[in-house]
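Lab manual, section 2.4: Encoding a predicted structure.

Procedure: take the sequence of the chain (345 residues), apply the prediction step described in section 2.3, and record the output as structure tokens. A sample record is shown.
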Amino acid sequence: MQKNPLQAIFFGLVACFVLLTAASPSRAEEQKFARLGDLRLESGETLRDCRVAYRTFGRLNENRSNAILFLTWFNGRSERLAQDVGRDKMLDPGQYFVVLIDALGNGISTSPSNSAAQPKDKFPRISIRDMVHAEYLLSTKELGLTHVHAIIGISMGGMQTFQWVVSYPDFMDVAIPIAGTPQQSSYDLLVWTTQEMTIDYRLKNGNEEGALDIAERIGLMSLTTPANVAIEHKREEFEKYVTTSVEDWKKDQNPYDYLCQLRAMIAHNIAPASGTLEDAANLVKAKMLVIVARQDHLVNPLTALHFAELRKAPTLVLESDCGHQATVCQNALMTMAARGILSEK
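Recorded output:
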């Protein structure tokens, strides 16, 4: 188990370590930025001076058919995604050209905390579709890709993956949304909007420093399961458990960035305008593997499983009391399934 479970979802399932030797020809490049200029958003507003951060592992093969896009989770960053890239990991950089992409609003790509033109509450509301559109522009205009082998994402990255297969259905062979959803369930909306209300209230009352205090506890409460928390953390260690988790997380967090991506998730729905999930499923051309956690209290699995049924797509249901963190607790099983579908001809 992670010592800091809250960091696991919001910053990347924890642990940042060296994956390849210095002599390896497929080691990761330094972070780069694609400068997209002014980006027209789904809302009709414009995101000024948009730039999208990314890192790459491996090399494109001769026919440019081995690229994989790996997308960040809620407030996650590309450097954290590296834990699933390596010769014995989910994505082998000796076989694939892996592109790790920082989603808009994460504090690295253009975000409320780093935008000179539209800082803090002047930042326009973005959607998951906007994140995906920016990632498409990065892939095509910056990297010159016209097609990729796969698109993969965990949590909010999984939500982006669901959006990718509808927005750009011809762009990938395989899509693997992990612990994501094509649209929020009523329970998801209860969790996310409660966090939104607490952050928004405190920001409007000038309490920027404490804006995330309650939202952090809600996130911590939803990350695993009641049984997991009760077993892993003794009653007499409760205050230390909560304080340590929250304080470590807050070191790199910004309330405006958090609220930006939170609102994008709340509005997330891949169904076309005036359409249904079945209409969205009919647009998909990629082979899909849908991975969910049965006891996920942060991203309810039912909608993703329903979409998989509509697509007749294979599923992997992670069974444990780790909840949303099942992707960590059962990482070996998840990795085996993902590598399997990626290698299918």
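Check your result against the sample. The first strand starts at residue 32 and ends at 40.
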